[in-house]
Design a protein that fits this description.
By secondary structure, the protein is an alpha+beta fold. It contains 13 helices and 22 strands.
Length: 567
Amino acid sequence: MALDGNFVHELVDELSSLIGGRVNRVHQIDDMTVTIRIRSNRVNHQLLISAHPTYSRFHITHEKYETPFDPPMFLRMLRRDIEGGFLNKIEQIGNDRRVHLHFNNIDEIGDPIERVLILEIMGRHSNIILTDDENKIIYAIKHLTPNNNERTVMPGFTYTAPPTLKKLNPRTAELDELPKFIDFNSGKVGKQILKHVEGVSPLFISEVENRTKYFKPDNVVLAIRETLKALEREPVLYHDEKENYYYAPLSIFEDKGIEKTTYETLSELLDDFYHNRYVHARVKQQAQDYYHVVSQNIAKTKRKLDNLAVDLEESKSMDEYQKYGELLTAYMHQLKPYSESAKVFDYYTNEEVEIPLKKNLSPAENSQRYYSLYNKMKNRQNEAVKQIEIAENDLEYFENLLHQMESITTSDEVEEIREELMEQGVIKYKKTNKKKKKTGVTLSEYKTSNRLRVLVGKNNKQNDYLTNRHAQNNHLWFHVKDMPGSHVVITHTENEIKESDIREAAKIAAYFSKGKQSESVPVDYTLIKHVKNIPGTKPGFVTYTNQSTVFVTPDEVTVKKLEVKSP
């Protein structure tokens, strides 16, 4: 990915249609992200701005976000100063990832005011800062105190730009000075260009180098300018290992035939690229406590299995205790009382054996002691075998649950996991005064290339609902073989299903399984009528018969193309 200064330059140009628009409403969806609803040219637009350390960006979004009921102080300042006002300028600072949004408004007593919302899109150093027309900071989404910081970002202080090295703007005559900063004999010219040219990314430099082949003092400036001129806005996401995107197609990917997705606007590209990642990270944070609980239970169950294995090993001595009891009984008349041991003939091995005795016990009491030890060990063995089976089922259940939690994408799915953990007694039921909103189980939906509907359960509640209540007996059911995974159902009869549908549904099942990163994953499929619950087991456990098996390699790009987006 490359949200560099060049990308920002194009994005600012694209967002120029918002200039003159009126700010209707401002929301803050988390600690680092705000949305500004602007009505421009009779159309409502929602501008998203984020200072998130991983997902910092700004663009128009069409996604819906939950907003906290109690507005944070930064949001209150924004609502006070820019709500009801007009956006009159969007300005990129040089070719940097810094953008100033200028607003005109009227304060509480009717006087005109000017406000500048400063966006610093710089990874973990990103910030959103509100200033007045005299460059004084009113509030910031991140405060930097005077201690241990190179600049201060606090209310009342004068705003100063981030402390960065002076670089050459590639869109001005400054770029002509570049050759005198480059040591062409030392190599790694690309890294030197990055150090001295503003707003360019390693991705852009790789593109320049690919077009130029090699840098020389007399071609480096021309190469950068010609590349900037050649890159015409056509937002594209390349599905390589790093999921790189840019505002225009790049020859470094085009020459290799890397699969790509193109977009109408830069905002659509950013919205698509970041939304799912942002939501996934946010939901992961919500589910972190439950993830920790399940991980603890996995560790606890493994320790239990280790202890049971020791018990089982120790119980192997019970046959010896039984034999000692029998031999002591058989030779009772020969034994001397209060002895520390007894040597007797073992008629099982035809050898003499020495049996340890308790000196304070009589021969009969020693014999009875060995019989008691035998019965104790036998009971211990039986209980260990029973408990091992229970623990192994528990371990499979918790590992499956942990896998399901890695696929959580919505707050509703977090709630379903919480409810299941309470039902299983893993966590305590918490009473709350809030009335629970009753909602049905929501299943993820996909469409095969043949336009057949495929439903996926991402947790035990969804799997149970899909397999036992929603699907019909003549629908085709899929599950990875011998590993945790989702239940997947093609909700059509066999005569409608083609071989390609089976393979695509199997790819979906493999993708939502523990074998997601593997190749040639075995996926079983059978009719719903052959899938049965296992009585007395944890949620999600089923058995099935009459299955066929297909081997597929999970492919995220293919699965995403088949996904039906929620309206």
